[in-house]
Write a structure and sequence with these properties.
five-stranded antiparallel sheet, 5 strands, 66% helix
C-alpha cells in the first residue's frame, strides 16, 4: 500500500514537472516571437533610414556637381580677366618701346590702357573698388596735367596692373565699406582670390558678395545657421593666419 502511494506521488510530481516545462517552453516561444517581431521592425526602420540617406546623398552629389560647374565657369572668367590684364602689360611694354623717344606720343597710349583697366575694375570683383579706381583717376589726372613724366607714369601704371593680377592670388582679411541694405557699412572682408568675398559686420552679421548679373555684384547677409557658422569659422581661421586646410563654405555663385 505504501509502495503504491509512493508511485502515485512520483507520477503526480512528474506530471507537474512536465506541465511546468511545457508552460515554460510556450512562454519562451512567445518571447522569441515578440523579439523577432521587434527585430524585424528595427530592420525595416533602418532600411527606411538607409533609403532616405541614399536619396539625400544623391541630391547632395547633384548639387555639388552643379556648384562645381559654376566654379569652373568662374575660374575661366577669372583666367580670361587675368589674360586681358597680362595682354595690357605686354601692349604697354611694346608701345613704350615704340614711343620711348617721345613723351607726347606715350601719354595717349597710357590713357587708353588706364581707361580699359578702369572698366575692368568697375565691372569686376567688388574688392575695394573705389580705392582702385581712385588710384587710376589720380594717375590719369597727373598725366593729363603733365604733373608726372610719361616714362614714370608707365612704371606707375605697370605697378597698378600687376597689383590687380596679385589680387587673384591672395587670401586675407581686410576692411571695406560696402552697400548693405541700401546703407554704407564698414565691414571686415575675407577675400579668397578674386572669386569669393565674404563679410562680417560689427554687429556680427555675416554674408557674401554675389553676382547680381553679368556686369554687377551685390552684398547679401546670410540667415542660415550652418552657413553663418561656416563663414565665422573662415574669419576665425584667417585671423589666426590659418590660410590652408579644408573649409566648407556657402557658394555665392548659385543664382
Amino acid at each position: 500500500m505504501l509502495e503504491y502511494l509512493l508511485k502515485k506521488i512520483i507520477l503526480f510530481i512528474g506530471l507537474m514537472m512536465l506541465t511546468s516545462a511545457h508552460t515554460a517552453m510556450g512562454s519562451n516561444l512567445e518571447n522569441l516571437a515578440k523579439a523577432l517581431a521587434k527585430i524585424r521592425g528595427e530592420v525595416e526602420t533602418l532600411q527606411t533610414q538607409l533609403d532616405t540617406e541614399k536619396e539625400k546623398h544623391g541630391s547632395r552629389m547633384s548639387a555639388l556637381t552643379s556648384q562645381l560647374a559654376d566654379l569652373s565657369v568662374e575660374e575661366r572668367r577669372q583666367k580670361l580677366s587675368i589674360e586681358k590684364l597680362q595682354n595690357s602689360i605686354e601692349k604697354m611694354s611694346t608701345n613704350t618701346k615704340q614711343a620711348e623717344q617721345s613723351g607726347e606720343s606715350l601719354s595717349p597710349v597710357l590713357i587708353e590702357i588706364l581707361a580699359n583697366y578702369k572698366r575692368h575694375i568697375q565691372t569686376g570683383f567688388p574688392f575695394k573698388t573705389e580705392d582702385r579706381i581712385k588710384a587710376i583717376d589720380d594717375l590719369e589726372k597727373n598725366i593729363a596735367n603733365k604733373l608726372v613724366d610719361p616714362k614714370k607714369a608707365v612704371n606707375q601704371a605697370w605697378s597698378l596692373i600687376e597689383d590687380e593680377i596679385r589680387l587673384s592670388k591672395e587670401n586675407g582679411i581686410y576692411q571695406q565699406t560696402i552697400s548693405l541694405s541700401g546703407e554704407k557699412t564698414l565691414v571686415d572682408i575675407a577675400k579668397l582670390g578674386t572669386v569669393f568675398l565674404f563679410f562680417q559686420t560689427r554687429d556680427n552679421r555675416v554674408g557674401m558678395a554675389k553676382r547680381d548679373n553679368d556686369n554687377g555684384w551685390k552684398f547679401e547677409t546670410v540667415d542660415d545657421t550652418s552657413n553663418i557658422e561656416r563663414i565665422t569659422k573662415l574669419f576665425d581661421s584667417l585671423k589666426k593666419q590659418i590660410r590652408q586646410g579644408y573649409f566648407e563654405l556657402p557658394n555665392p555663385l548659385i543664382k
